[in-house]
Amino acid sequence: MISIRPDAYYVSALDIDARDLVARGYRAVLLDLDSTLQPRGAACLSPEVVSWVQSLKDAGLSVALISNSARERTVEAARVLDVYLVRNAMKPFARGYVRACAALGVPCDRAVMIGDQSYTDVLGAHRIGMDAVLVAPQPGSDPLHTHILRVLDRRAVRGMRAIGSMS
User: What is the pTM of this model?
Assistant: First the structure.
C-alpha cells in the first residue's frame, strides 16, 4: 500500500535547507503553491519565498511548481520564481509529477515533492517512487473538502515532530 506518511515534516518550506536536499542526493524540487508557499488564493509571493526558491536554484537544484490550480496567479507565481510550471496537475495522479521531472531532465527518484497535503502531494509523489516533504499549511481559508481531509494530514504525521520554528 502506498503511504501518505511524509518522508519529513517541516513547519514551513522556508525551514528546508537547500544544501541538505543536495546532500540527500536530490537533483530537483517540485513545489506546491497554495498553502505551501503562500496562503491559498494570495495574489503574490513574499520576498522570503522568492529568495528561498532562488537558494534552491543556487544550490544546483532544478525547480518546478506543480499545482492542481489552473488560475492565472499560478502562472504568475511560476513567472516570478522563474521555474517550470505544471498546472492542472491532477495530484495525486502521476502525470503531473512525471511531466515536471521530464521537463527538468531528472529521474523521479532523484526529485522531492514539497507540499502541504498528505492526500495529494505526498500520496502522488510516493505513487511514483518520489520522496515527499509535508509542511504545515500556510494560514488562509481552505475549501470545505480540504478542511475535512486535513484530518488525514494529522494522522500522516502522528508521532513526527515538525522541523523548524513555530514563529
Answer: 0.90
